[in-house]
């Protein structure tokens, strides 16, 4: 359960980089690390790391790829924090919710895909059918009813 929280935290924070929700994410992460910091220098380092990470996503040709490379870094940071301060787990859960609320639906879907691997939305209209597969094949055989 804690591992899932760490993965979700990393994916959510990097998912917010270069979006309208970034300031909410940045402020929340700083607040979380300030709570567990032994000194101000540690918080300053986290702020710098956040800013460098966000800048990397902002200037990347492929922001998704940049986020994918940064997620493990932030997962490591959250893991270290929770190892030292296990009581911060609930704050991290709350922060994930705050960040998610600040993102658009598409941005939340991207974060969910980063956490779970894939997210797919299928909508049909006017008696149409949709044949969907994730990671597999779909074989559809129609019979002529004449």
Percent helix: 55-70%
Structural class: mainly alpha
Distance between the termini: 55 Å
Described by strand count, sense and barrel closure, the largest sheet is: none
Give the overall pLDDT as a whole number: 87
In DSSP terms (H or I, runs of 4 or more residues), the helix count works out at: 6
Give the SSE string: HHHHHH
Keywords:
6 helices, mainly alpha, 146 residues
Overall description:
By secondary structure, the chain is mainly α. The chain has helices at residues 2-16, 22-36, 40-59, 63-84, 89-102, 105-116. Helix 1 (2-16) packs across helix 6 and helix 2 (22-36) packs antiparallel against helix 3 (40-59). It is elongated and about 80 Å long. The chain starts with a helix and ends in a 30-residue tail after the last helix. The mean pLDDT is 87.
In short:
The protein is mainly α and 146 residues long. Helices cover 67% and strands 0% of the residues.
Topology:
Blueprint: H1 2-16, H2 22-36, H3 40-59, H4 63-84, H5 89-102, H6 105-116
Helix pairs in contact: 1-4, 1-5, 1-6, 2-3, 2-5, 3-4
């Amino acid at each position: 359960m804690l591992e899932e929280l760490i993965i979700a935290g990393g994916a959510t924070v990097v998912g917010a980089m270069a979006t309208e929700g970034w300031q909410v994410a940045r402020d929340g992460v700083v607040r979380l690390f300030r709570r567990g910091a032994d000194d101000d220098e540690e918080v300053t380092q986290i702020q710098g790391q956040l800013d460098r990470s966000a800048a990397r996503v902002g200037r990347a040709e492929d922001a998704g790829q940049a986020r994918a490379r940064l997620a493990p870094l932030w997962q490591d940071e959250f893991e270290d924090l929770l190892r030292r301060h296990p009581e911060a787990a609930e704050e991290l859960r709350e922060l994930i919710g705050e960040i998610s609320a600040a993102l658009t639906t598409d941005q939340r879907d991207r974060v969910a895909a980063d956490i779970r691997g894939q997210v797919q939305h299928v909508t049909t209209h006017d008696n149409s059918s949709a044949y969907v597969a994730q990671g597999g094949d779909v074989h559809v055989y129609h019979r002529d009813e004449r």
